[in-house]
Write a structure and sequence with these properties.
The protein is built from 4 helices and 17 strands. The chain is mainly β and about 290 residues long.
């Protein structure tokens, strides 16, 4: 069913709006933070900062219905305990869809936790968490969300870390009809972010700053109820993400991450779901 959906979608929509290493002035709005979010280097760099008074955040000017979303991010160095840096997609309304990267800070020398979640029609509770195999504060690394009719894939430096398949055929809701914006923020969450809230933010270390560059989007821009993917245009090579699946090499890379770096998987948390694990955790995935 998912493969058929991809094929039909590909036939209907042939042309994509593409932003390649875009200019932050053109692509996003800094929406909160009272000057703590800054666009620098003629639009090539964006920084978000957090101090005791406030965090900061931005959102994309465009909404998208399906796409591949990449950004290079360098996380807060040193003692980042209590802070959360986010990069995610979200729709509007009370039954929203959302695809989350959240980076949970830690004490100096301790690893960040990469927290992922998938919401569909307002329902989340699908958390998977990972350590990284590198220091995410030493340099920029690419964090990607692929969202197409068949699946959602979270990747780091091109290596998949999580896949959420479209299992609507067996009754699992899937984000497919609500356009989403890109959002990112940094904020204080020391009531839960680091060791369940035991470690608090050390404000003497503020400001805490995360840096972004090379925002790249291949996707269908949604505006006034109309998609930029226009059936009157011929198909082109930019559409590869639309039908992209995980090949055998990608499947092996995904398993390597999950076997070595996954630290929490809701699909294994039987204590949390005493009435039974969520359906997507129990069905046989092809």
């Amino acid at each position: 069913m998912a493969t058929l959906a991809i094929f039909l979608f590909s036939l209907l929509f042939g042309s994509l709006i593409t932003i390649v290493a875009g200019n932050f002035y053109q692509d996003v709005d800094i929406t909160w933070g009272d000057g703590r979010g800054k666009i620098l280097n003629n639009g090539k760099l964006l920084s978000l900062s957090l101090d005791q008074a406030s965090g900061s955040g931005f959102q994309s000017k465009n909404q998208y219905l399906y796409g591949k979303f990449d950004v290079k991010l360098k996380l807060v160095p040193g003692n980042s305990a209590g802070t959360v840096t986010t990069y995610y997609l979200r729709s509007e309304g009370s039954t929203w869809d959302e695809l989350d990267f959240e980076f949970l800070g830690n004490l100096s020398g301790e690893p960040y936790i990469v927290h992922t979640n998938v919401y569909s029609q307002g329902k989340g509770d699908r958390e998977q968490q990972f350590y990284l195999w590198f220091d995410p504060t030493a340099d920029f690394h690419t964090y990607s969300i692929l969202w197409n009719p068949g699946h959602v894939v979270f990747s780091v430096d091109g290596r998949p870390i999580r896949e959420f398949k479209n299992l609507e055929a067996v009754g699992v809701s899937y984000p497919k009809s609500q356009p989403m914006r890109i959002y990112s923020s940094i904020w204080n969450a020391d009531d839960w972010a680091t060791r369940g809230g035991l470690i608090k933010t050390n404000w003497s270390e503020a400001p805490f700053t995360a840096n972004y560059k090379n925002l790249k989007v291949n996707g269908c821009v949604w505006s006034n109820g109309v998609s930029s993917c226009n059936s009157s245009n011929s198909r082109n090579n930019n559409n590869a993400w639309l039908s992209q699946e995980l090949d055998s090499t990608s499947q092996k890379r995904l398993k390597w991450v999950q076997n070595n770096y996954m630290v929490y998987n809701y699909c294994l948390d039987t204590k949390r779901f005493p009435q039974g694990l969520p359906l997507e955790c129990t069905v046989i995935k092809s």
